[in-house]
Amino acid sequence: MGASLMARNIFNQTPKVAADSPAAPPAPAKSGKLPGSVGGLRDSLREITANSIRDIDPDRIDMDGLRDRLALEDHSIDELAESIRKHGQQVPIMVRPSDKPERYRVVYGRRRLAAIRKVGGTVKAIVRTLDDDASLIAQGQENNLRLDPSFIEKSLFIKEMQEAGYKPGVIQDALGLTRQGVSNHRVVIDQLPYELIRLIGPAHGIGRRQWGDLAALSEKAPLVDVAREILSRVKDDTPSPEKFQAVFDAASSKARGAVKRTAPAQPTVVRDASGAPLATLASDGRSVAIKITRKSNPEFSQWVEEHAEAMLRQVFAQWQDESGSGS
Asked: Which of 8, 202, 248, 258 makes a 20 to 30 Å CA pair with 41?
């Protein structure tokens, strides 16, 4: 189904309006006696009515469907609302008739609808009768044309579409991606907790490799905890890409520290000339330890205990002479 829908340009197709829907224009009485010119005028008027932009009360529009943006209630909505307040709504949204009388379901234009709800008044909307697949493709195509969703927003959209049961061809058409492209987005999103993405935001300009690198740090650092801690110190209006970088830098630093702290000791057995074990030498990145087992070498361990301080001073003095670190 996906290829055929893509080929027919979802934005310019003639809408099929159900006769009993709130979007349907009045159906004129059938008459075989109408002259050709009158019948043609009637059909033209019906087509104009079907394609016209309508003013609809926002309260009659349900904000349903899958999310293609991470946030609607943010400062960008306030900016859009202020622009609409000054200049009016320049671009209509698209809705489709709901199963409920006198109600509609938004197809695309969720940000504009949210902004107009802040401003007040009616919203300019194109009404189309679309099935779920066509509605989803229209939503994805319009967003790609107006403001390309970020990598992580596309990934979330793909995950929701797949979990909602949409066919692979429909998902590919909605975002203009190949099957491999869809797979690349899904691989990354499956490694990231949603709370982490919500804290960072859409992060436009941050691509698959960078999100993948952040996901790879999850085994070495608690990413959500790191994000909460580091983002509590930045301003609320900090751009999302900068939030991503701050979280990535903090998580990388924490991961490096964790590697140093948890580095396993590498014990080395020290033996005498005959090959018999004398002691074990171990290092864990923070200290060096020499362990002599009393059971194996009781007399030697007793001697070392009695002379340890003098031996350490002697060894330290030797190191100073050899390294040139002496005062």
From this structure: 8
CATH code, residues 2-151: 3.90.1530.10
What CA–CA distance (Å, rounded) separates 172 from 181? 8
Q: What is the pLDDT of residues 215-269, one digit of tens each?
A: 999 888 899 999 999 999 888 888 889 999 999 999 998 888 755 554 455 678 8
Residue pair 70/197 in contact (Cβ under 8 Å)? The answer is: yes
In the chain, what are the domain boundaries? 2-151, 265-308
Query: Model confidence over 195-226: pLDDT tens digits?
Result: 999 899 888 889 999 999 999 998 888 999 99
CB 271 within 8 A of CB 278: yes
CA distance 38 to 35: 5
The number of beta carbons lying within 10 Å of the beta carbon of residue 251 is 24
Crossing angle of helices 208-216 and 240-262, in 10° steps, is 30
Query: What is the distance between the alpha carbons of residues 267 and 292, in angstroms, rounded to a whole number?
Result: 12
